[in-house]
């Protein structure tokens, strides 16, 4: 079976233990991945510490040359990366290409690092005294990433960290690890010095070793809320800078003045694309006023037409879930909702894909008459399940969203500007769409949620990413001429 090894100091490092990587569309084992622990993390961090000494000193111009080459290589290998993602994650190739493109855009953003790291200069802040600010790299940064975007989510982190003069240790998801090794190879081909980008595979033991390692300065995490909370707590207690992005329950609010047919199409794609395994997937609809029955009918019609199949099949719109456990969890969540009184309008639990009996497929599920008290609403199902709640007014809908523990993304469907403005200002959510179902910010803005969707203060990529991976310095300087009388002040310095 194919082996996926660690990548440390510019070379493949053979594992001592391995876990199996399955093909979600068939349920068959397809590769084995090394499972690292403290020993591999020590090796990787030591390589990153050594590399950082010279990489941090490298001119901005030389750093950006590597990033420009990396950008081109990722574009050239878009299909290779996408197919690796499809084979191990299960999403369609077209969808996987989308994540490679969104990841590449972060590299493009990082290519502008000379502009982004420009400090500020104040001339003559006091007589003969100037002041300027600059941003310095942190050292070794670590990234721990989820299964659902094995190319894009790590790329939210490492291009920015590396451009800022840091070195990086990535611990990708053990479910779909191959793309990270191809990315490491592309960095090497782009001329990135050995040790600047390292990959340690594995699970909790490798993560804990990173969180506890004295030479790791900062940790970026993306994954489920319980693990995000844990990572944030443990790394913070160890004195590290941490950004930990967690799970989500993203609401689409539909007002009576919306184009309902358009809203139903948009919401369907955002709910079931990638089998609902996106942190920005719409998983709850709040139908306002009189829209409920007609909207449910339209959503049901759309859900029934979604083409489910293996991700490499040309016309498939939605692939399988990532593991058999994920499939079983989704099926159980729909059953529990039904028992709690929800109406199952579209039921994908029994879906079978011809020739793929062992695959982890579940078809689109649409649940109506869901209330905020039901577990199908309260919990992140992370599968192709869309629940519909009803509200009488926009304010009631905003109240539902704000009472939810998560605050990643949300969308409003309306034709009214005043309602849209009220919604944007009123919701306690980090990323908001107006007639846009998946409001994923571009690379030059920052991505992140509120409440239980983010632990820490900074969002990823964009200006907040640069701030996260650098520390500020402010310099106050004076160059007295020989003829000037030297005078020392014992009072606290004030400008003169
Ligand atoms: P996960 O939390 O199970 O795993 C994420 C990472 O943490 C993996 O690398 C995994 O190996 C590691 N890990 C798992 N358990 C751990 C533990 N107990 N201690 C230390 N490390 C541990 O998440 P997942 O199932 O891979 O991904 C899906 C989740 O990620 C969903 O909740 C989704 O909403 C979330 N997500 C959030 C965002 C966002 O931007 N907020 C983006 C993508 C995914």
UniProtKB/TrEMBL annotation:
Residues 18-475 form the Aldehyde dehydrogenase domain. One of its GO terms (biological process) is thymine catabolic process. It is an enzyme of class 1 (oxidoreductase). It comes from the Bacteria. Pfam families: Aldedh. Keywords: NAD, Oxidoreductase. CDD domains: ALDH_F6_MMSDH (cd07085). Signal peptide: none annotated. PANTHER family: MALONATE-SEMIALDEHYDE DEHYDROGENASE (PTHR43866). This is methylmalonate-semialdehyde dehydrogenase (CoA acylating).
């Amino acid at each position: 079976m194919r082996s996926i090894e660690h990548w440390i100091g510019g070379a493949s490092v053979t594992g001592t233990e391995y876990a199996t990587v399955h093909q979600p569309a068939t349920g068959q084992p397809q590769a084995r991945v090394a499972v690292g622990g403290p020993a591999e993390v020590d090796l990787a961090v030591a390589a990153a510490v050594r590399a950082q000494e010279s990489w941090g000193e490298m001119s901005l111009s030389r750093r950006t040359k590597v990033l420009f080459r990396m950008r081109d290589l990722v574009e050239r290998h878009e299909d290779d990366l996408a197919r690796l993602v499809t084979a191990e994650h299960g999403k369609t190739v077209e969808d996987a290409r989308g994540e490679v493109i969104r990841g590449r855009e972060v590299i493009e953003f990082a290519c502008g690092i000379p502009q982004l790291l420009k400090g500020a200069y104040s001339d003559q802040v006091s007589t003969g005294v100037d002041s300027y600010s600059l941003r310095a790299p942190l050292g070794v940064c670590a990234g721990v990433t989820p299964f659902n975007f094995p190319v894009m989510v790590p790329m939210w982190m490492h291009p920015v960290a590396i451009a800022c003069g840091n070195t990086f240790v990535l611990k990708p998801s053990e479910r779909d690890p191959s793309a990270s090794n191809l990315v490491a190879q592309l960095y090497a081909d782009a001329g990135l010095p050995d040790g600047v980008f390292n990959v340690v595979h594995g699970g909790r033991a490798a993560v804990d070793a990173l969180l506890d390692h004295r030479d790791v300065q900062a940790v970026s995490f993306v994954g489920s809320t319980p693990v995000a909370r844990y990572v944030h707590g443990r790394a913070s207690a160890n004195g590290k800078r941490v950004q930990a992005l967690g799970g989500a329950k993203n609401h689409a609010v539909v007002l009576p003045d919306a184009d309902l047919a358009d809203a139903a199409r948009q919401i369907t794609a955002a709910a079931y694309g990638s089998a609902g395994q996106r942190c920005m997937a719409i998983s709850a609809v709040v139908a306002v006023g009189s829209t409920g029955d007609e909207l449910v009918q339209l959503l049901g019609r759309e859900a029934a037409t979604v083409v489910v199949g293996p991700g490499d099949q040309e016309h498939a719109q939605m692939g399988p879930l990532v593991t058999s456990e994920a499939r079983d969890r989704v099926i159980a969540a729909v059953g529990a909702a039904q028992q709690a009184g929800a109406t199952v309008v579209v039921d994908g639990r029994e879906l079978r894909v011809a020739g793929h009996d062992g695959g982890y497929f579940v078809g689109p599920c649409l649940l109506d008459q869901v209330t905020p008290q039901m577990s199908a609403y309260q919990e992140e199902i992370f599968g192709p399940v869309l629940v519909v709640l009803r509200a009488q007014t926009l304010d009631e809908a905003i109240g539902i969203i704000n009472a939810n523990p998560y605050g990643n993304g949300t969308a409003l469907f309306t034709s009214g500007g005043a309602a849209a403005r009220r919604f944007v200002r009123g919701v306690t959510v980090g990323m908001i769409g107006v007639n846009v179902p998946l409001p994923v910010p571009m690379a030059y803005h920052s991505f992140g949620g509120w409440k239980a969707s983010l632990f820490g203060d900074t969002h990823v990529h964009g200006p907040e990413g640069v701030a996260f991976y650098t520390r500020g310095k402010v310099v106050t300087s004076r160059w007295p001429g020989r003829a000037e009388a030297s005078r020392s002040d014992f009072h606290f310095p004030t400008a003169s």
